[in-house]
Design a protein that fits this description.
Distance between the termini of chain A: 40 Å
Largest interface: A-B, 21 and 25 residues
Helix content of chain A: under 10%
Structural class of chain B: mainly beta
Number of helices of chain B: 0
Number of helices of chain A: 0
Number of strands of chain B: 11
Order of helices and strands of chain A: EEEEEEEEEEE
Oligomer: heterodimer
Strand content of chain B: over 45%
Distance between the termini of chain B: 35 Å
Number of strands of chain A: 11
Largest sheet of chain A: 7 strands, mixed
Order of helices and strands of chain B: EEEEEEEEEEE
Strand content of chain A: over 45%
Structural class of chain A: mainly beta
Chain lengths: ~120, ~110
């Protein structure tokens, strides 16, 4: 069974930094691209970032480009999101998500999310 | 950026009725459109990918159609567990984008 467990969400001040982690299990992690998607409280879904299977290619939403960095450690079955220069509008539930086997831009499984609150 | 507009924002129906949800793209996404279901307090679940392909384990009452800029998710006969928020998502262009959602509520 695919399991994705996010951690690292906390309350942080504007301008601060944070690293989110996602522990993956139940599938061969290094075969799949992975995503981060966020959802502000009471709002819709916003795609944040994608990393391919070996970390060689990464993609970002314009709203986070230059501030967030996605990475992965296949030896630890883990996905990360380094978040710098945080803003109030980054407040959201951050989901780690797995791509379909042959379609890197399509998500088939999601974690339960970790809440990031940016507030002074 | 491709903007996806979902309609209606809220749909009120009774169990057993047919639901038709719409997603319109600001430019063509070919057939690279997915539908997700999200229940309160839960993560989204993939229902349909590439416009008309049901994901693993998704009941046959869910179907998707469309191409280009206009897409439809149809639930043929609503079950109590189908009342949720539904999102469309395109993967034709960067960045990947989602629609704003349609809330399907019990009438």
């Amino acid at each position: 069974e695919v399991q994705l467990v996010e951690s690292g969400g906390v309350v942080v001040q504007p301008g601060g930094s944070l690293r989110l982690s996602c522990a993956a299990s139940g599938f061969t992690f290094d075969y799949y691209a992975m995503h981060w998607v966020r959802q502000a409280p009471g709002k819709g879904l916003e795609w944040v970032s994608l990393i391919n299977w070996d970390g060689g290619s990464t993609y970002y939403a314009d709203s986070v480009k230059g501030r967030f960095t996605i990475s992965r450690d296949n030896s630890k079955n883990s996905l990360y999101l380094q978040m710098n220069s945080l803003r109030a509008e980054d407040t959201a539930l951050y989901y780690c998500a797995k791509a379909l086997p042959t379609v890197t831009t399509m998500i088939d499984y999601w974690g339960q999310g970790t809440l990031v609150t940016v507030s002074s | 950026e491709i903007v996806l507009t979902q309609s209606p924002p809220t749909l009120s129906l009774s169990p057993g009725e047919r639901a038709t949800l719409s997603c319109r793209a600001s430019q063509t996404v070919n057939n690279y459109l997915a539908w997700y279901q999200q229940k309160p307090g839960q993560a989204p679940r993939l229902l349909i990918y590439d416009a008309s392909n049901r994901a693993t384990g998704i009941p046959a009452r869910f179907s998707g159609s469309g191409s280009g800029t206009d897409f439809t998710l149809t639930i043929s006969s609503l079950e109590p567990e189908d009342f949720a928020v539904y999102y469309c998502q395109q993967r034709n262009n960067w960045p990947l984008t989602f629609g704003q959602g349609t809330r399907l509520e019990i009438k």
